[in-house]
């Protein structure tokens, strides 16, 4: 019986210590600090995030536009599909959109490999 009372007493003390205000002198609690602004990337206010990403990898917006074009064309052709079942039409539309995306990704990888390994580098940049 006394061990239950002691255990309950310890629990209430622990809860009381946690519910109080956090003291910086307590070595058991880690110090929380905000990160400095030096780690944050700087953004040009006149340029949108999408345009920056499009300059870094130009085939991503091309893939997005191609996928949207394939879906739009598929929806336009939906009214004149004839005797073709709806599921077959949707599968063809999905395959076309995925093919365009995979093609854009492949071209993007080839382009980035060209820029990294084969593009001529300016020797003046390396001699800073």
UniProtKB/TrEMBL annotation:
Region of interest (Disordered), residue spans? 1-40
Report the transmembrane regions from the record.
59-78, 90-114
* Keyword annotations from UniProtKB, A to Z: Membrane, Mitochondrion, Transmembrane, Transmembrane helix
| Top-level division of the source organism's lineage | Eukaryota
Residues covered by the HIG1 domain: 27-123
Q: What is this protein called?
A: HIG1 domain family member 1A
Query: Compositional bias of type Polar residues: which residue ranges?
Result: 12-24
Chief place of localization: mitochondrion
**For this UniProt entry, what's an example GO CC term?**
mitochondrial membrane
Location of the protein in the cell: Mitochondrion membrane
Which Pfam families does the record associate with it?
Answer: HIG_1_N
Q: Which InterPro entries does the entry link to?
A: Hypoxia_induced_domain, RCF1
GO biological process terms held by the UniProt record: mitochondrial respirasome assembly
The species this protein belongs to is Oncorhynchus mykiss
Q: Report the Gene3D superfamilies cross-referenced here.
A: 6.10.140.1320
């Amino acid at each position: 019986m006394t061990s239950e009372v002691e255990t309950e007493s310890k629990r209430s003390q622990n809860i009381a210590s946690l519910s109080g205000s956090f003291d910086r002198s307590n070595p058991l609690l880690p110090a929380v600090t905000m990160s400095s602004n030096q780690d944050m990337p700087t953004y040009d206010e006149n340029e949108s995030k999408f345009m920056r990403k499009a300059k870094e990898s130009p085939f991503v917006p091309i893939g997005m536009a191609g996928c949207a074009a394939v879906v739009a064309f598929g929806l336009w052709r939906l009214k004149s599909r004839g005797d073709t079942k709806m599921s077959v039409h949707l599968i063809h539309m999905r395959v076309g959109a995925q093919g365009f995306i995979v093609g854009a990704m492949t071209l993007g990888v080839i382009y980035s490999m060209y820029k990294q390994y084969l593009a001529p580098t300016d020797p003046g940049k390396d001699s800073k």
